[in-house]
Structures are given as structure tokens and as C-alpha cells.
Amino acid sequence: VLSAFGISNFKFAFEGLDENGWLRIPSSDPDSPWDGCELLFTMIDYDEENSNLHAAFEEMFDGVPYLQHAKRSDVCPNAIGTDLALKKYKLTEKHISALSQQNPELFFGFAVYNKFRASYIRRRLRKLSK
Fold first, then answer.
1. pTM
2. Angle at 89 (CA atoms; ends 83, 90), nearest 5 degrees
3. CA-to-CA distance for 37 and 52, rounded, in angstroms?
């Protein structure tokens, strides 16, 4: 999807998330079917309140608020076990290293994600300690 919007550098896109957890990417190819469109590239679990998504929606969609959808367990009750297993699954450094051998930029994506998660946890701990 990033390449369809003219982004060929995966690292560049992730570095753009560093500022506020989202990046607005306009189409750069007038011959693309996406001409005139913008891609909202986000870190989905930036924080519990989805503050980055609220900010992105405020800037991109005047008058359209970001609304949380129904709980996944309510929408897909038969998938609760799978959903919990995926949430509990932890990728080890060994997994990440193996996955990144064919695509070194994937390693960079994991590093950015881990940085965001660590920052989020620090913010939550500070908030809880007040």
C-alpha cells in the first residue's frame, strides 16, 4: 500500500510515525488510481485512548470524529480463543531475526514498534503513579 502512494522507503514511513503515531501520505502519482487520495498510516495501538487516531481524524476529516467500534469479542464471539492466543503470543528476538533475514526493513519496523510500546508503558506508569 505504501508503494501505491509513492513511498518506496519503509524506514521513512516508520520514522514519520515517530512524531505523533500517524502519518498523512498524499498520492504522488497523477496516473495512479489513488490520485487525489491520501493514506492514513498509523500505529494502531499507540495508546489505550487511541489519541493518535483522534488527532489524525481531526486533521484529515473535518467534522468526522473517530469512534471506537464494538468489542471484537461481541462482533466475533467464535474467535475469542484465537484472539486471546494472538494477544498473548510474543515474538522473540530469534523469531524477529529469522523473519528479517529476507526483509531487513522488517527488523526496523519491529524496532520502531517496540520503541513506541516502551514509550507508551512509561507514560502509563507515570500516569498511574500520580
1. 0.60
2. 150
3. 20
